[in-house]
Automatic annotation (TrEMBL):
Domain Fe2OG dioxygenase span(s) in chain numbering: 87-211
Alphabetized PANTHER family for the sequence: EGL NINE HOMOLOG-RELATED (PTHR12907), HIF PROLYL HYDROXYLASE, ISOFORM C (PTHR12907:SF26)
Cofactor needs: L-ascorbate
A Pfam family recorded for this sequence: 2OG-FeII_Oxy_3
One annotated GO molecular function: iron ion binding
PROSITE patterns in the record: FE2OG_OXY
Gene3D superfamilies: q2cbj1_9rhob like domain (2.60.120.620)
Organism in which the protein naturally occurs: Streptomyces avermitilis (strain ATCC 31267 / DSM 46492 / JCM 5070 / NBRC 14893 / NCIMB 12804 / NRRL 8165 / MA-4680)
Protein name, per record: Oxygenase
Length: 223
């Protein structure tokens, strides 16, 4: 009798990546006030978004960002749900600090498939969060967060045939937030904003909960 496994050794397993999504997160009044602050962030306060926190690569990422945007009400709300998020995603975020920025996607903007980890940041970014803001009714199309299913054996290189991957798209709904692990492959789908007006952008506050870097303890290294 042949006891060999009937499963091919080249078989690829695809596992859905867990995403925690909460709608009506801050409530109408607080979300509205935060949106107005985001809209007011125009002119020199928004700069071309970078990858790896140091490079502007418009063929890979096109949007504008502001890194000194303060959203204490959002951080307080995240603290309130963090225990449940940790349990769902299987991660501990004790003693972490937030690092986040405001991002605005307008007509034609996008962010190609990527992970939020690298050799430099992987030990520090433990949890990714994205909070969405926009005028209603939604003045743009597209801009979905596409999260790709994990494939086993795990492949972390960016090269490959993305059209063969499986995924789920998450709508950038006003006053909603998503949490997922930074190792997940994800992208921002292209945005169509007919008016091209800054106030009609797809706004998002996205960031991470970061653990301290033991190598830099006591130094002034930025997150």
């Amino acid at each position: 009798m042949d006891h060999r496994s009937p499963v091919c050794t080249d078989a690829v397993w695809r596992l859905p990546v867990t995403v925690c999504r909460i709608t009506q997160f801050l409530g109408e009044q607080t979300a509205g006030a935060l949106l107005e602050r985001a809209i007011d962030s125009a002119g020199d306060t928004l700069q071309p978004s970078m990858i790896r926190d140091r490079e502007v690569v418009p063929d890979f990422r096109r949007s504008r960002s502001r890194h000194d945007f303060a959203a204490p009400e959002l951080m307080a709300a995240i603290d309130e749900v963090l225990e449940a998020v940790e349990h769902t995603l299987g991660v501990s975020c004790q003693h972490t600090e937030p690092s986040y920025s405001l991002n605005a996607h307008n007509d034609g903007d996008f962010y190609r498939p990527h992970q939020d980890t690298s050799a430099e940041f992987a030990p520090r970014r433990l949890l990714t969060f994205v909070y969405y803001l926009h005028r209603t009714p939604r003045p743009f199309d597209g801009g979905e967060l596409r999260v790709f299913d994990a494939a086993l054996p795990l492949h972390t290189e960016t090269a490959g045939r993305w059209q063969e991957r499986t995924w789920r798209d998450w709508e950038p709904e006003h006053d909603s937030i998503v949490f997922f692990l930074p190792t997940a492959w994800h992208e921002v789908r292209p945005v169509s904003c007919p008016s091209k007006q800054h106030a009609d952008s797809r706004f998002a506050i996205n960031g991470w909960l970061c653990s301290p870097d033991p190598a830099n303890r006591g130094n002034d290294a930025s997150p």
